[in-house]
């Protein structure tokens, strides 16, 4: 119940070297015998042994084979009389727990009648008493005993060393993990599972058995996960020289999981959402997500498991680095430069949608936080995605080869250790001693200690007489909770100058001997810096922050003509896409500010629409890129640009822009649909997925236009496509086109979808989600969501289902959620409280839907505050939710 501070880190008073665990698995009473070998840490003054526990029933404690005295301090087991020297001693702790009652899904829990564990961050203490902290690393041997018919598969980390039958229809399996690991990487799975298996031989010539375990009946959905795993193994060896270190690597899927997946050593446990994929129930986006999450967990084997975190404040050491690695993996697998760029743009869209608001809200924290009440609340987009951008900046500053050298040195120095972000930074700088990174390291490390999104202001000046172009960049960063003032960051700004003919001009800074072709990275370290380019024959358009080279907000007062020039020509796909977004954003903001209440029916100007038409019909651009350019910024992103947010006003303007885009380009959309609708036999590759994406977007626009006076045939065609689709992407796109347009056929299609997929949990999640995200027409969505809460297939206890309905509504449908009558907020408060009694981690995620309440216009602001205060006033609130709402109201 107290705040944990980074500054208070102290090494453990004891080490635990060896752990022998024996489980007698029973749903309501599992018995756990924990035999440990401990020794005092000679570097720490002598003190009692304090072992963490949480909701355990303690039966017996034995010290060196004898009963011993102990006491409880809250949930902590305290032993005063442990041996004094530094010699190892044996401690035996016997406890029981109740997996069936474990609705928090931390520790040992049941899902579909099978046993699973989740130990990160502090779940191991719900299995046995332990020094449950990542810098205590031990070797584990685990024996599992259970009923053989009910639990035929018994798994734990490492290698299977023994198995056999026991009396009374029971059996056992003993596993030994040869690698020392922290307790958060411990795992157990027991149940009725089947596996897809594949033997592979890696470059290093070593043989491995890869297994993907699922429930019987789901095996046909595991091919993509297995292929993704094989690709991951090969990629990590090829790109980073990191080989698989175990004979056997297992992935297991469960449908009840708080997060996406977990990198337990050799026994990764996954949410089914990130393992199961077949064409009839999973979309292209689902296939991509499986690939990237399988990659992410596999890559943790080195960045997380072999080298782990000293304490939880260092979480981004493993998470930021591993997200960076999974992003690079997906880009490398995507193949073409265009497909790579699409992936990069999608990553940036996600960062801006989730991390930028976090950095501007009450939960803002540095990539390496300074304090927490509940560590689970700090598995955030700042730790993960901003952390990945920080790692990406290392690579930008030292180059790809330099980054590889840094990684090599990091593993050379720290394999088998629990370390800090400083250790990673030092390895990168020491491996590249002549780099700008090495020179600027202390300043670069401000990315770890300062929260907030820096703003970079750009101003350009062309001097025709001198043939120079002068670019001035200034940086600032707004105050965040606890950090009123920020020192300047090191900001790599990749840029180019685009000539009148649309090509990149050679770049020559005034102190350079000769020009370079294409792009150059300016490294901004001061509050303001001016760069003069020479030999510039005609006025260029600057293309700034190419590839999104730093996680900053770029303020640049470009003219519409400059942005249109970049949209038509920029050689950098990110900046080209960004130019289009800026044009749309500017229009939206002008409309929102200008006409209090009255929205123009045609907010988008002809030049912008013509530019979009040119992109849509462009013979050389890929469909996936076109779809990104032709997707307008969403309501939340627009809200993030405003000081005062009126969600209904934003919604009205977005609606008008969307309708205008649909109707003005109707003929072009029809062309795009016909041109891209056939993709042949289903394959999730980027080219066919891009074609499906663009066809789906076109159908969406055509149905929208049809319900507003356009061509009437399209809803019927969408319904037909929905019925006949050979894959989930086309089917769901057609269904959401109907739901999005509000056409009468939407109801029929939703009913049919339910009948088709009522026995497919992941597909049914989409059905709940689609309805929760539907356009609000006269306030109809909230009553519909309330009705769905009572649906026999809905349960708040299953996180995926709760997310599909309640989170989709509160986090994903701003116009329906922010109601003038405050009913959306009341719904939110009721669900947070209801969920908190079941699963505090999931409840705390839902609580974050109100992060931006303070910027809301009235009457939303006061009503939102009242709803948050109602939650905060509940006396028995979990630490998880309490931390979120307290910060929100501070
Ligand atoms: N490292 C894993 C984190 C995780 C987690 C954290 C809190 C509660 C439940 C959890 N399940 C998994 C996931 C990852 O980043 O790979
Ligand atoms: Zn991770």
Automatic annotation (TrEMBL):
Residues 561-890 form the Peptidase M1 alanyl aminopeptidase C-terminal domain. Its cofactor is Zn(2+). It catalyses: Release of an N-terminal amino acid, Xaa-|-Yaa- from a peptide, amide or arylamide. Xaa is preferably Ala, but may be most amino acids including Pro (slow action). When a terminal hydrophobic residue is followed by a prolyl residue, the two may be released as an intact Xaa-Pro dipeptide. One of its GO terms (molecular function) is alanyl aminopeptidase activity. The keyword Zinc applies. GO terms for biological process: proteolysis. Residues 79-185 form the Aminopeptidase N-like N-terminal domain. Transmembrane segments: none annotated. InterPro entries: Aminopeptidase_N-like_N (IPR045357), Aminopeptidase_N-like_N_sf (IPR042097), PepN_Ig-like_sf (IPR038438), Peptidase_M1 (IPR001930), Peptidase_M1_dom (IPR014782), Peptidase_M1_pepN (IPR012779), Peptidase_M1_pepN_C (IPR024601), Peptidase_M1_pepN_C_sf (IPR037144). Belongs to the peptidase M1 family. This is Aminopeptidase N.
